[in-house]
Amino acid sequence: MNKVGLPEDGGGSGPAFVRLVVVFVIVLGAVTPRTDAASVSGVSPTYGSLNGGTRITIAGDGFARNQFNYGEGQENVGNNVTLVSDTRSYLCDMHKDGTHEKQITCYTRCVVDKLMTRTSVTVSGKIFTAYYSSDILTANSTNGITAKLLRAYMGGRNCELLDELGRIKELVLDGDSGDAQTGHFKCSVDSKYIEVTEVTPSSGGTEGGTFLHIHGTGLDDTTDAATQVLVGGAVCDIQSVTADEIVCLTPKPLDSDKTSFEGNRGWRLEIWNDHPLVTVDDIDEIAEMNETLDDYDVSYVEETKYDYRNNRHVARLSGYFVAPDNGKFTFYIKGEHMAKICFIEVLVSSGTHHGSSIEVGVQRSNCLYNADQTTWGRNEKQTITTSTIIQPEIQEIDLSGWPETQTSTQEVQTISIDTADATSRFRVGLSGVYTKLSSLVTIQPDTVSVKKEQNADTYNFTVTFKSDRGSWPLLDVVSTEDTELSVIVEQETMGVSSYTTVTFTYNGVRAPPVRVDADAAEVESSINSLLSVKCPDSIIELSEEATYLMRDYEDEFTGQYFEDGWRVRWMYSCLNVLELIRGRHDEASIVVLKKMNVMRNAVYTDLQYIYIDALYVGSEPTTGDPEAFIIARQLPPFRVKSLSVTSVANMTYRLEMQPWDCYQPDKFSTWNTKEGDVAVTRVQEASEGANGYFTLSWKNSDPVDVPADVNVEDMQALLQTNIPGMGVIKVEHDGDCIGRKWTITWLTVPGEQPLLEVTSTEKLRGLNVTVTVEQERAGGLFYNPLPGHLLRTPHDTPQVTVMVNDIPVKCSGNCSYTWDESKTPTVSAMSPTSGAAGVEVIVTGTGFDSATMENNVVKIGNITCTVSSATDTEIKCTAGMGPAGPRTVWVSVIGKGAAKVDEGVTMDFEYTAALTSISPTSGGIGGGIPVTVTGAGFDSSHVVKLDGSDICETRSVSLTNIICVVPAVSVDPVDVGAGWWHADGAVPVTIVKDGAVIAGSDGSVKFTYEDASTPKLTSQNTSTATPQGGQVVHIDITNLGTVSSVLVGNTSAPIITQDTNFVTILLPPLGDGIHQIYFGSLPSISVDFKVTDVSTTKCSVYGGCYVTITGSGFPENKDITQISFGRAPCKINSITNTEVQCQIDIARKVWFVDNSGIHPVYGERYLWNLPILTVEQGDEVDWSWEPPEYISGVSYRVEQTANATASAYDGSGFRSDEVSTPKGSFRYRFVELGTFYYWSGRINRKKHAMRGVVHVVAKKSYMESLTYKVGTIEPKYETSAAGRRKRSVDGCAVIPVTECTEADPSDFQVSFLTCLTSEMTSISPHQGTALDTIIITGSGFEASQDCTEVLVGDKPCLISSVSNTSIECKIDNTAELEIGFRYEVT
């Protein structure tokens, strides 16, 4: 071990650095022992950051050769470096790659000061790997993943993974052999521990004002919010804050009769040991117990939870709960033995053997966070349940008319196949089932015999049915290849039944035969077989030697089949696993299959469940023809949950069955019988279950139609798309047509939610069908246990409580404070009651501090009155500098607090202002000169005036100075020609507030105007301008000097050229009026730009009205002129200097929708940001989309769908493109009223889709004001004496509409009214040529061709006839319209 002193740093040690005194270098046992001692010759650098991370290089000799000390027994290999001061030591983490025998490199750690504590944290989750940095923790990766865990952070702070010796604390993967990707690791995080240890003094005067000193640690951490202090619930005015002390001025006590006071964080835990067991009936006795009883112990806990393992005891947990916000809070208690919660005390009685534990939690209903954002979060969960009464199907089968037995004849059929198909393979089937004839389940239990013959043209097969049940359906022959067979099947001999057995049938499916006199059990067995899946035995005829595993997951192979997807989704798959593995690992000689997972294919993600019928693992395939497995099965005509058959009379059977899916079956029949042989009667029809629709609403939304059998995806789409504010939900489904339950979980809308409301069940069908909604789990935050920041300790006296970063601190000492009348100073008089800064103020009273003058504090408002002397009864002080005006005098004595003012004594003091000088004292008569006015008591409400009326324009104000710009002279002007005037002489300077002189009334301070120093105008090329600016103005003027800038009004004008006697400027855009030119004298520019009249006062909400705007000074340039009424632009047709004619367009808004929404499962870019949008007719929606960063295989489009749940383009609505794109945009204008659903298509491999809806509503009447702009300049809106004029446009008189009763708007406003709006109901045809006549029908048209205009796009449609309800026109044949493009008709 070598000890080396570090050289002192030449500079001061700032707060970001630490200087250490000694470095200890320990050379541990090396693989090869060394006899020479190690030595250190230098260390660099000698200082570094408090937060660690500084790389230190230690030079020397004899350091360890081998640095790699991994593995058991290698702990003492390599070097260790420790940084040591006179009080602390810190490990320096080795950097092995930079270390050899003559050099060591290491990295410093974060310095832990006295305010820091180190907390050990266990982190569990999907951590993937058991590797840390370059350290190999195991000989081999336990799960095959070699990624490295580098570092961990908590809230931006490093969470240290290594212990003091540089070893990983703990890093373990789950699973018996650590083969999982989940696991846990441990780390330590440094955090500040904030507490209050002492409060002094513990009492003070009743008027407050006592300087309270609060001692503790970490009190100055104001990362998120300022530190706050309360005394007895009232705010203590903080004067200073450091890490270990807060100083504040105590308040007056609150008016309250409280006997219990809230303290700092935590609850009080009181325990009475060895106390007799309290029963449930008398548990309230604990509330009356106190500290005088034996074996009493009290402590304070940080959360509402404790685990006490002493034997017999009773306990009381008490304190205050601080609700973080308004809302509903529900309290819960969980105890090991008897417990009861009383607001807010928890009473506990323990058993006699194991002690007790208790937890108190609270559910907060309104919050901003959901379960994905915090472990406290609970998402709202509601269930929608339908139920109905189900009655079974009951049929009676009467065989009493069964025919007498007779001699049977066997059925014979022939199959002829063309010899040209000799090489073709084929299958023979019956009733839709195909396999070899001997295995056909549709023939069994009967059999067949086959005889084959061949002639020149055909192969002939004679099939004899070994059956006495009568005639059979014709056999079917199909090719197993793509070619067609030339085949003929004929009945050679019709079978005749012996009638010794009866075969029940349903829709062509036959049951096994039973005796005519069979009992009910035999009939039930036969019909059960009819309603079951039938498979040939060959399917499960497997080689015993080749079979390793065979699992049939049903009583009979495919017997009682599955509920979901049973008809079209049953499939057979055979995989050669060995071949697949060797395809990737061709070097493998031995393959051992340890585990096999069956996962849902992406094709079947819409299925809620997937069932395994049977599983075979073996060395040989079960078949070489997988398709044959499918078509060899016979499916039943329908399924039943239950079936019972009873005998109600001789040869009469009653069938009672409950079908699956509320199926309503037809009547059963028998095979090969004629009318009258058998009578089947339906006694009771099976009920159909719940069908049709019910409607749901939420938060008073419009009702949504919900199908009674809606699936999960459609229910989600219906609610999310149609109900505003629903957010993203998760839907789960259970049940069937008898009773369904949908569980709705709010994923993105946090907090407790109102119940979904069933608004109507009128469209539901079923027997006594009902729909109910229940809350399964309230959303919100569930604090369990309650954290310390929501808790306050209970006390009998007022407490000093401290909040740091809006978090209550812990009080580890005595934080009590009381208000004491005996310590309260008093004030009986004060004089004088007014004066300027520096005046002496005398306060008389009692309880002042004569021993230490500095302990007496006097303030006039917030201005210190410096104490010059003090006795027990009198304080003298000098008033500090303050602005003029009234202030309240406040007196306090440190250690006692604020003084109490005797009744009738005034503590008001009036500061007065003073004016002493102005600088400079003279200037030209044109004004414009900055001056400094000096005095006392100034503030921003004070105004400097010259000669009593001319305002000196203020630039800045302080207590002693006002800087302002003097105005031009306005006293006794002398005309000097060209509109210029002047007057010499001195004028008085005064300070004025609210119109009254408050300083300078004696006239002693003056400012002198001097004509000799004033610049004088000799000529100006123009004195008028247009509003758009751009004119060049040349001004000749004497005594001009150098001009650095020119202002025209308040706008800067560029200087083109200048000299001592002239300046040329470029005018900026200017509004109407006279604009002074400022540079020491006052030429001016006049701009005439006014609007005096708007011809139109009322218009349709869809625009179209012609407007004439009159005035003066209008630039005759359409390109620089913009006219609008609110959002409705007015298209300019013509413009002169005094009149503009324009046509008002429809006011439209563009709504922007993008895919920036955050989906709770997929993340950002998987939701529209505005999925539910309400727009007005004529508005446009602009969609844009882009993929998540670095994610491929994601693409989007926008296309209209028929409804909220449809997953395809509706064929006629809006559409961005047929092909989805990763990035794009699309804009569409909605001209029709209604609701328009759309979706994005399936955007990823998981088939996720983004849905939205646009509700288009009619425009409402509104009013807008005229905006007329030339560039950025607006005119002066000035009504002419003649008032507003209503004008005709192109000979069309303004026609009054009696339905419109709205009053005329104000000047320069237009009312857009629905009562003036025409309506188009149809257009015919929708496509054609310029030769076609377009017929428009509707209402509210003007029956005059001259006053009606029709546009197709922006091209005219020439009107041939018009009425109030119809218009006929043809497109102007000179208009150039694009073929195949869809144009809007207006």
From TrEMBL:
Domain of life: Eukaryota
Record SUPFAM superfamilies: Cupredoxins, E set domains
Keyword terms, alphabetized: Signal
Every IPT/TIG domain range: 195-280, 824-912, 915-1010, 1088-1167
Signal peptide location: 1-37
The protein's name in its UniProt record: IPT/TIG domain-containing protein
Protein's organism: Ridgeia piscesae
Phylogenetic classification of the source organism: Eukaryota, Metazoa, Spiralia, Lophotrochozoa, Annelida
